[in-house]
Amino acid sequence: MIVKDIVNRDIVNLTNCEQEPIHIPGSIQPHGFLLGLKQESFSIDFCSGNTEEFISQSHTKLLGKTLNEVFGDQVLAKLLDYIADNKMLSSLLLKLNLSDKEFLCTVHKSGTIYILEAEPVNDQAKQPHEVYDHTSQFLTYLHTTNSLKELCHLVAEGTREITGYDRVMIYRFDRNYNGEVFAESCRADLEPFLGLHYPHTDIPPQARDLYMKNLLRLITDIDYSPVPIYTIDDQEEKNLDLSLSILRSTSPIHVEYLQNMGVGATLTISLIYKNRLWGLIACHHYSPKNLTPEIRLAAQLQGHFITSQIDLRQSQEEYEIARKVNASFDKVDMFDLTVDNASFEELVKIPELITLCNAAGVSLVVDGVVYKSGLAPADDEVLFLADYFSEQTENSSFVTEKLIDHLPHRAELCGEIAGLIFHALDMDTNNCIIWYRPETKTEVKWAGDPSKSIIKDKKGLSPRRSFELWKEIVECTCKPWYQSEIEACAAYSYSLQRQLNMILLTKEEEKYRKLAELLKEKNAELENINWISSHDLQEPLRKIQLISSHLLAEEEVSSAVEHSLNRLNASAERMQTLLADIRKYSKLNASEDPFEEVELGVILEQVKRNALENAEAAVDISWDKLPVLRGVPFLIQQLFSNLISNSIKYAKKGVHLRIEITAWDEKLPFEKEDALYQVISVQDNGIGFEQKYADSIFNIFTKLHHASQYPGSGMGLALCKKIMRNHGGHIQAKGELGVGTEIMLYFPVS
What we know:
Strands 1, 2, 3, 4, 5, 6, 7 and 12 form an eight-stranded antiparallel β-sheet that branches. The protein has 19 helices and 31 strands. By secondary structure, it is an alpha+beta fold. It folds into four domains: about 5-120, PAS domain (Beta-Lactamase); about 130-225 and about 240-320, Beta-Lactamase; about 335-440 and about 475-500, PHY domain (Beta-Lactamase, 2-Layer Sandwich), CATH 3.30.450.270; about 590-750, Histidine kinase-like ATPase, C-terminal domain (Heat Shock Protein 90, 2-Layer Sandwich), CATH 3.30.565.10.
């Protein structure tokens, strides 16, 4: 059997300490020993190198043997009961007799290995009633304090009394994990650390992760020599995760850091609040010091107590703030905005709009107009902020306590307002509401210059050695926004946005109402003009025709005069036709007649009879099976009557005219639309037209030929287009000059 140690010998320095695998050091502290037992067989697979000092058996003799082989069946039975009762990592320690010596043991599981850590029973340990008395006294403290700071001070004193450490600190983290000594109890001859701040680099991320997993960390002697852990060499890269270990060896970087502080021993208890490392109970002793497992658990229990109180007392503080915020929200949310711009001026003057989030001022931007109250920048600066944050947030929201970090080139503006809450009120404009807070200058006392938390000397990089007081004035920063304040601003912004949308809708409705009235007036005027054109203008045309007819009846009229009178009569007739078409077009509005099923074949039979009666030359009009359409029968009849009349009008001389009407089998979309249409084609072999005129021929009064060649008003196809539009459809034309024309009608598929 080959035995090897698992000591992590990677060179660690401050350039790579954030990647240091501190959970697998491969060694432990020497005040106890460690056994790693396989889950199934309980054979010893890992063993610390100091077992001979405690149980007079070396690690080489222990590795590979089962626990009962070494210590007997009774020890194994007690361990199995302990595991079965789920007491691992609980406050109840496992007491075992190993090689005729009493040990207090902790047990936890690491992968498939049970880790058993044993420390000898201390005859000088405090009696259980002493520990209970300390805990009971601590419980009374909880009921005699009002603030969180008072409570933390009493916890520091109680922890120092029960543990006997020279210094006990309640260490609190900010959002960036910079630390502050929030409360402290220390020996009278020691310099206090209360109020000092420590940079986040003092506790790297992986160390904070371990504090979240293992709530208690003990170093009995800073100058200890690490004890290697050995294992049977039966696989490559064999290791043991000691994240939950009590005896786990400490990072050499951390040891050097504590040595620079002059510390001899430490105890650290994690304080977890809302699944985040809120802080630590940090105990320092200036000489080596060990605690019995009972005392450690008592101290850890105080950590649990303070954690519960942190949650309770901060919740109480936040509740009080939230209560005031909600009262302000209810008051300001009752204000009823109107379309009158003066309403916005009244809104920003309501005091509760500012106290909603305990701001110092507020501004509202609506349609480029600035309304503001309290501490707020000049109007042009407000508009700049509105434009800037609308673009940066894509018309969303933004919160900051240090505006200059985002607008470093606007130092003058940031000197006036240090923090703000921004909420957009529109997706397409810079309409927004912004709350402001002024600068709150803060003096921060650091335990040494935070910019020199890592120093470089002839030995390379190392932790800072200086912890002398270093002061920093924090500028251009406002008081932090509470979550309840941020949420209240968001809630009111959404409410205000709804009100603005309602105002916008009201304005749009008013605008459309006025347009509708104007349109009604214009339609009345057009109807009046149509009446004049269809009635009053008919009378002079009839007189012109009557007079010209009388003159033509006179025998003395010369041929020149006769020709002129005939032209005059024809012009009057064309004028009457045009007026009739205008009357038809103006009356062809969206029909109020209900749609019904229309047999297209039946309609075309009637249209064909009328067309053939009036045709001057032979015409073939044919169709195959045609569909049933939904529409207004007389309008569809007029549609096809116009199209067939058009084909007859523009027939080629000397060519037998053929008109074919076809229903396409496949339902098709019109251009880029998704909807499907029934397509009906009307195709002839007439004179045709150039395709560039395919759209313009549907415009009113559009004619491609002189009236002397092809008479008409130029309104026939315009009427067809209007009929198709009234049916929710479309019309298209294809033509080739000298070949013919095809008109395609797109009827909606119901």
